[in-house]
Design a protein that fits this description.
Elements (H helix, E strand, L loop, with lengths): L1 H14 L2 E2 L8 E3 L8 E3 L6 E2 L18 H4 L6 H16 L9 H10 L14 H10 L10 H5 L2 H7 L5 H29 L1
Antiparallel strand pairs: 1-4, 2-3
Helix pairs in contact: 1-3, 3-5, 3-8
Length: 195
């Protein structure tokens, strides 16, 4: 399962005192075999070796995926867990949990930290999946689970013993592609308007 693999990568980094700081779908690659349980996390250009006793203060990340504590410039490795929660939300629904017409509006929504599962696309998603996402998107980063703890979530454990449903996996990838294409079009439109 993609999310379990992503959390395993995050746990490995965190256990070696490395925080990625820019986790997003574009930085998660499938292996050439195209198995959904074999991924690579890339683009460690904004990664940082961190001291667990000190907070990071540099505001780095991509607007949709950035954690509220990063925007407030007081954060640690938990920002990667938030980003993983945003990725999970988009994988399952094709829409972001925090949205806006501009980067500033998106970041304002993130600072508020309120999201929901009210869109009709969530009707067919299990309560366990929603609970998992909610735990990763816990606003107080001190209460957010570690990557290792998130891997132990009942929903992840249940899904990891199931055979990957190719249809569901392809649907999740289509959600990411649609979301990415929409963002590319929005950026191009804003660039054209700004010219």
């Amino acid at each position: 399962m993609l999310l379990k693999q992503l959390l395993s990568c995050v746990a490995y980094c965190h256990n070696h005192n490395i925080v990625h700081r820019d986790l997003k779908p574009e930085n998660v690659l499938l292996e050439a075999s195209k198995e959904f349980d074999q991924i690579k996390v890339i683009d460690f250009g904004t990664a940082q070796v961190f001291d667990p006793k000190k907070e990071l203060r540099e505001q780095i990340g991509t607007p949709y995926y950035i954690a509220p504590e990063v925007l407030n410039r007081h954060y640690g490795k938990e920002c990667d867990i938030w980003s993983t929660g945003v990725i999970a939300y988009i994988l399952m629904s094709g829409i972001p949990p925090f949205n806006g017409g501009t980067d500033q509006e998106i970041m304002k929504a993130i600072k508020v930290g309120k999201f929901n599962f009210e869109n009709k696309v969530w009707n067919g998603i299990s309560q366990g999946a929603k609970d998992f996402i909610s735990s990763l998107l816990t606003y107080d980063h001190h209460k957010r689970p570690s990557a290792e703890k998130a891997i132990q979530h009942a929903w992840i454990q249940e899904m990891s013993v199931m055979k990957v449903d190719e249809t569901v996996a392809h649907h999740a990838l289509e959600n990411l592609q649609h979301f990415h294409a929409h963002n590319m079009m929005k950026a191009a439109t804003l660039t054209f308007i700004g010219s």
